[in-house]
Amino acid sequence: MDEVARQLRKPEGPAGLEMARRMNESNRALTDAALAALALDQGERLLEVGPGNATLTMPALAAHKQLYYTGLDYAPDMIAEAERLHVALVAAGRARFVQGVAEAMPFTDASFDRALSVNTLYFSPDPALALAEYARALRPGGILVLGVRAAAYMRQLPFTYTGFRLFEEADLVALLADGPWARVKILPFEEQMRTSAAGHVGPALSHIVVAIR
Ligand SMILES: C[S@@+](CC[C@H](N)C(=O)[O-])C[C@H]1O[C@@H](n2cnc3c(N)ncnc32)[C@H](O)[C@@H]1O
To answer: Quick one: CA torsion of 7, 119, 56, 86, rounded to 10 degrees?
Structure first.
């Protein structure tokens, strides 16, 4: 697999830390849009799967004083880097970082009010199982938001030819159709990529999935 694809899939070592910093540039707008769709409120328990170094989501904790954040990532180097970067929030009991996989989340049922995941579903060995785990970990009425770059956009990037599962809107609709979701909507999100960190400069289309449990 291409080294860029490998580091996006599971950032590791110094190159993984650098890749996480580059993702903070290229994925900011999509993450902000996904956070806006989550409609966060004070006192909620937020799960993020695949946060990388979690720099893009931490501002949400400043905006919502009583928000409790859990970041789940299978990459040990991302867990260590997120704990290092956000040490004050961890010490204050506002954030914790847990190593584990989306397909077998180490949480009891209904542990969260909101769940978020951006640019992570492409790497799942079993997206339907991951979706079932989000549904299990969310309380009834909880909200899941996924930020997923559109397949047509992803195919323009030089590193997505291997190791990525790509999703058209219809694939996402089908993936959620079988789950215990009360309501699902998929919103288009378009941005102008201004940084070559994404491997592309120009318009980029993504899907924002909003699913109510
Ligand atoms: C491409 S990065 C995205 C990081 C950040 N969300 C962003 O958009 O910039 C994917 C992250 O998800 C993690 N990841 C990928 N698949 C995962 C899985 N099945 N379970 C847990 N973590 C996963 C990787 O280790 C990595 O930190």
So the answer is: -60
Structural domain boundaries in the chain: 3-212
123 lines ligand 1 (CB under 6 A): yes
Among 130, 151, 96, smallest CA distance to 211 is for 130
Is the entire prediction scored with pTM above 0.85? Answer: yes
pLDDT value of residue 168 = 94
Residues 6+ apart with CB under 8 A from 213: 135, 138, 139, 140, 141, 142, 143, 144, 180, 181, 182
What CATH number labels 3-212? 3.40.50.150
Which residue is closest in CA terms to ligand 1's atom 20?
101
Pairing of strands 202-212, 68-73: unpaired
**Predicted confidence (pLDDT) at residue 210 exceeds the cutoff of 90:** yes
Sequence-separated (6 or more) residues with CB below 8 Å from residue 117: 48, 49, 50, 102, 134, 145, 146, 147
Distance 140 CA to ligand 1 centre (A): 25
